[in-house]
Amino acid sequence: MNYYEKELNIIKKSNRFRKRKLFDKKLIDLASNDYLGLSTKKSLLKKTYKILQEEKYFTPKASMLVNGYSSIHQKFEKKLCKLNMFENAVVVGSGFLANISLIESLIRKRDILFIDEQYHASGMLATKLVQGEVVIFKHNDTKDLKQKIKELSYTPNRIIIAIEGVYSMGGDIAPKEFNDIASTYNAILLVDEAHSSGVIGKNLLGWFDYHNIVPQQNHIKMGTLGKAYASYGAYILASHNIISFLENRAKPIIYGTAPSLFDIALAYTNLKYLQKHKKKIKENIKENQNIIKKYLQIDTKSLIVPIEIGDNKRVMQIQEELISKGYLVGAIRQPTVSKAIIRLIIKLDIKKKELKEVVRYLKN
Fold first, then answer.
1. In terms of C-beta density within 10 A (0-12 exposed, 13-18 middle, 19 or more buried), how is residue 237 classed?
2. Are 27 and 320 in contact (CB under 8 A)?
3. Is 190:161 a contact under the CB 8 Å cutoff?
4. What is the pLDDT of residues 263-298, one digit of tens each?
5. Cβ contacts of residue 335 below 8 Å, gap of 6+?
6. Cα 162-164-166 angle, rounded to 5 deg
7. Alpha-helical runs (H) found in 14-89
8. pLDDT one-digit tens code per residue, 328-346
9. Residue 202: its pLDDT value, please?
10. Alpha carbons 44 and 51: distance in angstroms, whole number
11. Cβ neighbours for 203, distance < 8 A, ≥ 6 positions apart
12. CATH fold for domain 14-35+303-363
């Protein structure tokens, strides 16, 4: 029986149908989140293998609270803490699981979570699991957040504010005022840095670094390893108490197998490379941003360039036209965005002449 045929036909008619696809390896990639182009550097891969060869075990074997926690996990966590100036850290299997871990476990009875309407789908899914109240505020709108806090009819036990450092579809950065609001209302500020770590900030460490915010007890930084760090997995940075609470309450941490040792070792290798070459990386980021500003008049502060098309069929046509020219861009449709966009990732491994050719085509 074709149990879901009707639903699939509806998706197809609205030009929202998706499927896995193997793209030609010769295509120039301007669609993925490999922002710094580290995924093709075999020298980093070789260094990672050397790290693994020093270990007795090459796989995590169990959850981190049984005996899956490795010196590789610990070494990476300590490196993240030192660079980002947080007290403690824990690695998690993926960014999706990190958001589930944080939101599902931290929002207890009589707590309130205020979450940006464009927060990642993993966080929005997690809101369905919380014991406390959830309030959604307008995207990057600090006035709306403050108004909603003032309108509270009772005094909550805790207030948690969830934002992203850089938003994945718009490429826009959350304003610093969110930190001021968190301080004013003694709230916990949770920042998803999946698309900001490695891309913005004086030291390329993300949103806190970008706004020159020294981490405090009420701050939580979550980031993924599948973007700028060119690996897989995630991490959570926070105070000792919050990390300890997650170890005792966050189900993905308690019941999930510990993150892959290879992926964590690769992220550690790539993080060290990023810090060693941050001056050159920042220069390359600025050069690509300037090309976008010159040709498309879009002043992006990240490496994400959204170009609104508004038509699902047309956005797929544009993607196919660019594929025929040897370039792969993202054709993003609902429900990921409200209106269809071409999502251009101005990755650092793209040659300048190639980037210019793409943006000239898109402009025309």
1. buried
2. no
3. yes
4. 999 999 999 999 999 999 999 999 999 999 999 999
5. none
6. 170
7. 42-53, 71-84
8. 998 888 888 888 888 999 9
9. 96
10. 11
11. 83, 209, 275, 278
12. Aspartate Aminotransferase, domain 1 (3.90.1150)
For 163-210, write each residue's pLDDT tens digit.
999 999 999 999 999 999 999 999 999 999 999 999 999 999 999 999
Measured on CA atoms in the order 113, 116, 117, 121, is the torsion positive or negative? negative
Radius of gyration of the chain (CA): 21
CA distances from 6 to 1, 9, 10, 136 (A): 12, 5, 6, 32
Phi, psi dihedrals of residue 161, rounded to the nearest 5°:
-115, 125
pLDDT in tens, 113-154: 999 999 999 999 999 999 999 999 999 999 999 999 999 988
CATH code at 44-275: 3.40.640.10
Q: Residue 303 is encoded by which pair of tokens?
A: 């490496």
Pairwise CA distance, residues 168 & 171, whole Å = 6
Residues constituting the chain: 364
Domain locations along the chain: 14-35+303-363, 44-275
Looking at this protein, which amino acid is placed at residue 364?
N
Average pLDDT over residues 101-120: 96
